[in-house]
């Protein structure tokens, strides 16, 4: 190929890739057919004259995320890498990705549902702005005040400017009678009444090991042992699951939170999970079909794809 032909190929490649011209516009400028333009662009790529690089968006592993989305039929899937291997860095990276996802998909008038959880609580640290949305607490309170759903509802609603709907009740109570009595409280009834209006929920993945579930931490050691013997290995919104994602009634009459049927009807339910202790639980939650999206670390993502 002579210098004139090389120069023309370079010029056409610049017009198309850098200047955003269409193939028809380029064909008219150079007095050639659009088919010849297409062929010259292909040749520019094949010869190495043009190189196209696609950079991953921040800390998200695109290949793992795409595989995760396809395997489990998810609306959204983020497999996130952290700057370092320590727990704090991993939590910060995953919760930042969750915050960015929320900021990109929420629209004015949406209603956000919020579970409780230690990892989930850090999402508000990364939120900068949200459209006007009401925020509803999906499950009762457990753990430290900075980790419970009421505090997260407050923080998110301050950013969105919407109305907060807290649920001032324990996540798990002592017996069914106490749960029924609390459910008669007007404020709790009003919040329960908002659950059916939720359009996007953010929920935790709880593993049935010490320190990895707010539900697990709310029960006695004997109750934990009995539920484990019954096959419980995971929970989300205090709804218990076995390893295959099957629902186990367990303590349904003692939990204060969104009904399973109501949760399954929410258009977008995004689960968040970090740490190797959550691998089995995350797989169970994905198999359950109760969540439509997942934001997690690359270790969990790779494991649930294996």
Shape, principal axes of CA atoms = elongated
Q: Helical residue percent?
A: 40-55%
Q: Which quaternary structure do these chains form? A: single chain
Major beta sheet, specifics? 7 strands, parallel
The chain-level mean pLDDT equals 91
Structural features:
306 residues, alpha/beta, seven-stranded parallel β-sheet, four-stranded antiparallel β-sheet, 12 helices, 11 strands, 42% helix, elongated
What does this molecule look like?
The model has no long low-confidence stretch (mean pLDDT 91). The protein has helices at residues 3-18, 23-30, 34-47, 62-72, 87-105, 149-160, 176-183, 186-194, 221-229, 260-264, 279-288, 298-305; strands at 76-80, 111-114, 134-137, 164-165, 200-204, 206-207, 234-236, 239-241, 247-248, 268-273, 293-297. 42% of the residues lie in helices and 13% in strands. It contains twelve helices and eleven strands. The two termini are 49 Å apart. Helix 1 packs across helix 3 and helix 2 crosses helix 3 (34-47).
């Amino acid at each position: 190929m002579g210098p004139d032909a090389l120069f023309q190929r370079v010029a056409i490649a610049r017009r198309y890739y850098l200047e955003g011209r269409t193939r028809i516009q380029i064909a008219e400028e150079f007095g050639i057919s659009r088919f010849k333009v297409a062929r010259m662009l292909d040749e520019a790529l094949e010869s190495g004259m043009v190189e196209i690089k696609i950079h991953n968006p921040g800390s998200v592993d695109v290949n793992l995320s795409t595989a995760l989305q396809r395997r489990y039929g998810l609306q959204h899937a983020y497999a996130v890498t952290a700057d370092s291997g320590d727990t704090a860095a991993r939590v910060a990276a995953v919760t930042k990705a969750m915050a960015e996802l929320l900021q990109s998909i929420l629209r004015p008038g949406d209603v956000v549902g919020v579970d409780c959880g230690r990892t989930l609580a850090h999402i508000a640290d990364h939120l900068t702005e949200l459209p006007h949305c009401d925020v509803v607490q999906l499950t009762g309170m457990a753990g430290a005040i900075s980790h419970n759903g009421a505090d997260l509802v407050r923080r998110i609603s301050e950013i969105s400017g919407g109305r907060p709907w807290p649920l001032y009740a324990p996540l798990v109570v002592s017996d069914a009678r106490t749960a029924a009595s609390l459910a008669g409280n007007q404020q709790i009834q009003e919040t329960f009444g908002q659950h059916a209006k939720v359009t996007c929920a953010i929920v935790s993945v709880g593993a049935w090991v010490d320190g990895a579930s707010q539900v697990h931490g709310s029960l006695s050691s004997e109750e934990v042992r009995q539920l484990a013997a019954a096959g419980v290995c995971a929970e989300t919104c205090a709804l218990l699951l076995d390893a295959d994602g099957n629902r186990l009634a367990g303590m349904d009459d003692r939990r204060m939170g969104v009904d399973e049927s109501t949760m399954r009807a929410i258009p977008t339910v995004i689960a968040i999970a970090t740490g190797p202790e959550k691998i089995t639980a995350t797989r169970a939650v994905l198999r359950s079909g109760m969540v439509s999206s997942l934001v997690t670390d690359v270790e969990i993502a790779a494991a649930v794809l294996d």
